[in-house]
């Protein structure tokens, strides 16, 4: 009988992150200065990010070495296990072989510390002692607070108001690691005050929280900003997961037929699949599937355009699938998937049809999460359960056709702080939001017209 878990030793951990930029099937469009529509030079980002991260953002080197101090901290939970989901296979009666790469084993409970630790390290190297950020569901804010504690950096987190109210334990986790957590919109920034003046009860959104964190960092000499997804350097740091996975699948004697992950900004999905995208571009037959909520259908329904990354139009313009920076998604429980845009790298690969995307309603997602919890035992985050939904559907198709596919899931995090959403599902109070086209059309009016580059 094959092993249920496949481990690597610490000495087998990847020593460098994989940069997909030089291997892309089409060039990545540069970020633009919204005032001129001209490409932005690295120095323009210097008020917000340390230079080492800016250089990673634009690097064309295929491999970037992981510094020893980051490796030392990664080893607190890495390498993460690869599991074979035998119990789920049996429950479904599928001939498919299902695996999952388990990133829920980190101290913060998700993949987010893979980049939080790296970002804190490079900031500290350049003498930065204070960082602002935003968080939706609270996973990213917790991860950066953890990294702040490990590198002695002060962290201020703007947390989307609705999550701040719904998830007191995520806030307490941040505070336990020494992070300061402020509900957004707040009266500490112009961006927050503007929103509150129009709507004192605003539930907030990731786009608004990003505006607040960026505004504060841009206005203070002693503070930089950190983003938990979307940007190239964040996706780069996450490739530690896909690189470990490659070795683990080789130990199991497997090659993936299908790889499935959830996409909010795209970081866990990219880290998991980018090392395999290279194999696919080299001719290997791998179906790579991104999953997202029907209520925030960035990859499945949104145009591929230049847009702002935040609500108050403070960021550069990024070429990405976007629902419009003024789009405020319905209040679904997968808070980490409620973002109007997507990583430019993931967006490019979707536009090139290297990656396909599927969207799901939250009731079917939670149904899959329950099937998972009652077979595999682990309780998935609502975000992660989107990938599980797609994997179960594909495994059931294999049951019909008799195909023995190897399906690999990116298990991005656990749902121990998401029990209120499980409560809503179990008590039949979870609402599905079909998103009317008019809502997308309305938000798309806010997207700037940029001449074809
Ligand atoms: C568990 C989990 N999975 C996935 C995501 C989505 O983010 P990303 O697309 O950057 O991986 C989040 C974001 O908060 C998360 O907490």
Helix and strand arrangement:
Blueprint: E1 5-6, E2 16-18, E3 32-33, E4 38-39, H1 51-58, E5 63-65, H2 68-74, E6 82-84, H3 86-92, E7 97-102, H4 113-125, E8 130-135, H5 139-151, E9 154-160, H6 161-166, H7 168-176, E10 180-184, H8 190-198, H9 206-218, E11 224-225, H10 232-252, E12 258-262, H11 267-281, E13 287-293, H12 298-301, E14 304-308, E15 317-321, H13 344-351, E16 356-360, H14 362-375, H15 382-401, E17 406-411, H16 419-426, H17 437-444
Helix pairs in contact: 1-10, 2-4, 4-5, 4-10, 5-7, 8-9, 10-11, 14-15
The structure holds pyridoxal-5'-phosphate.
Counting copies of identical and different chains, the oligomeric state is single chain
Indicate the low-confidence ranges by residue numbers: none
Major β-sheet annotation: 7 strands, mixed
The bound ligands are: pyridoxal-5'-phosphate
Structure explained in plain terms:
There is one protein chain. The chain is of the alpha/beta class and 453 residues long. It contains 17 helices and 17 strands. It has helices at 51-58, 68-74, 86-92, 113-125, 139-151, 161-166, 168-176, 190-198, 206-218, 232-252, 267-281, 298-301, 344-351, 362-375, 382-401, 419-426, 437-444; strands spanning 5-6, 16-18, 32-33, 38-39, 63-65, 82-84, 97-102, 130-135, 154-160, 180-184, 224-225, 258-262, 287-293, 304-308, 317-321, 356-360, 406-411. Strands 1-6-7-17-12-13-16 form a 7-stranded mixed β-sheet, with helices on both faces. The termini are far apart. The model has no long low-confidence stretch (mean pLDDT 96). The site of pyridoxal-5'-phosphate (PLP) has 21 residues, from helix 5, helix 11 and helix 15.
